[in-house]
Amino acid sequence: MRQKSVLVVGAGLSGAVIARILAIRGVHVCVVEGRNHVAGNCHTVRDQHTGVMVHAYGPHIFHTDDAEVWRFVNRYANFKQFKNQVKAQVGGGVYALPINLHTINQFFGKTFDPNAARAFIQAQTTPVIAPARNFEEQALQTIGRDLYQAFFKGYTEKQWGRAARDLPASLLKRLPLRFDYNDDYFSHRYQGIPEAGYTDMVARMLDHALIEVQLGVRFDRVDARGFDHVFYSGAVDGYFGHSYGRLAYRTLDFETRSYEGDFQGCAVMNYPSADVAYTRITEHKYFAPWESHERTICYTEFSRDCGIGDIPFYPIRLVHEKQMLAKYRDLAAREAGVSFVGRLGTYRYLDMDVTIKEAMQIARTYAKKAGVAALPAALEAAA
Ligand SMILES: Cc1cc2nc3c(=O)[nH]c(=O)nc-3n(C[C@H](O)[C@H](O)[C@H](O)COP(=O)(O)OP(=O)(O)OC[C@H]3O[C@@H](n4cnc5c(N)ncnc54)[C@H](O)[C@@H]3O)c2cc1C
């Protein structure tokens, strides 16, 4: 039987996982990537001036409850344990996020125990008569006006460039509220950062005799000729020439500064106030506490609407975009021989673990349908 040959567009996590899963089943994979590096938005690079490993497109912490995904990434990287503990500067004080008992006690000048704090916050919230229709209503129902205005309103409006009343309630549901002193941002079982960076991890996934990677190559639909299938992790509207319009994203600008010694003493400091133009400052060396550096490098992060030529970061997904997305999904479903994958191909915010899980599933489904030999689990785990 002729060896199957597929084209993967994009060498981010989606593309790399699909390429690996298919290559170990004997499929020849060509990966084209428009940028001059692999790993997509998880890209890490060592800053030449300070020697610090920088998360080039914003901070990335790996967190998952999925044992299979965790085993998979650990085949290509040595993960060091990392707990994300974010701080926020509010009204001249520094507080811990996500909001926990320490934040509540510090902010209100109290010494509440968990039950007293719960009752206190409950008394601050608006009663739930109907489900929250937007971010602001959700916040008022769950944390009350004082905490909402101090920690969430300004930050969220800067991040999304829209009034909190025009944003979905679901955005707040992602953020925990704790009545103990646990200030870990994520509560997943497995959390860490690859010691040698995400780019090294993705490069190892792509390092296989049946995978050919071409960097600096932008995909054009004619490039699909001759391949049995295409996995496309670029923007779905871009694939169809933006025929129904452009799906809206937020993009980020980073102002970079380096200093002697340390700058802020933690990896991420949020600035929720509407009076500060930026959303947060990331000090990258704190993502690698196992390293030591005399100098430090910080990224100050500004958020704005994504224009033509900017890098798309966060899909906006308000009503208008969802309607447009439905039309593109329809076109995508009818496009023979192409699977639209990943955060840009499906126009969703996806954490890395979800990206990897979906990529594994889509590659295995393709392999099965295409009659490519399935691998016993133990063999796949070792390949
Ligand atoms: C600021 C920020 C912080 C984040 N932090 C975390 C975190 O802490 N933890 C977490 O789990 N997740 C985090 N994420 C999510 C994470 O970045 C995504 O899960 C992951 O990048 C998705 O991988 P992907 O391959 O689908 O997309 P991408 O990483 O975007 O990769 C797609 C690739 O395709 C290439 N491409 C696109 N179109 C073309 C074309 N036409 N031709 C050739 N190449 C093309 C692009 O250049 C890109 O390299 C964060 C995201 C952002 C924006």
What does this entry look like structurally?
The chain is an alpha/beta fold. Among the domains are: 154 residues, NAD(P)-binding Rossmann-like Domain (Rossmann fold, 3-Layer(aba) Sandwich), CATH 3.40.50; 88 residues, no CATH class. It is built from 13 helices and 17 strands. The strands form 4 sheets. The protein has a 7-stranded mixed β-sheet. A 5-stranded parallel β-sheet has the order 10-2-1-11-17. It has a 3-stranded antiparallel β-sheet with strand order 5-9-6. Helix 1 links the parallel strand 1 and strand 2. It is globular and about 70 Å long. The model has no long low-confidence stretch (mean pLDDT 95). Flavin-adenine dinucleotide binds next to helix 1, strand 2, helix 11 and helix 12.
Percent helix among the residues? 25-40%
Give the integer mean of the pLDDT values: 95
Q: Please give the count of helices.
A: 13
Under CATH, the topology of the domain at 5-41 and 195-247 and 319-382 can be stated as: Rossmann fold
Distance from N terminus to C terminus (CA atoms, Å) equals: 22 Å
Largest beta sheet, briefly? 7 strands, mixed
Radius of gyration (CA) equals 22 Å
- The largest sheet has its strands arranged as 8-7-13-14-15-12-16
Q: Label the CATH architecture of the domain at 5-41 and 195-247 and 319-382.
A: 3-Layer(aba) Sandwich
- Low confidence ranges: none
Spatial shape: globular
Structural class: alpha/beta
The CATH superfamily of the domain at 5-41 and 195-247 and 319-382 turns out to be: NAD(P)-binding Rossmann-like Domain
* Ligands (ions, cofactors included): flavin-adenine dinucleotide
CATH class of the domain at 5-41 and 195-247 and 319-382 reads: Alpha Beta
- Sheet-strand content, in percent, reads 15-25%
- Helix-strand sequence: EHEEEEHEEEHHHHHEHEEHEEEEEHEHHH
List how many beta strands DSSP finds: 17
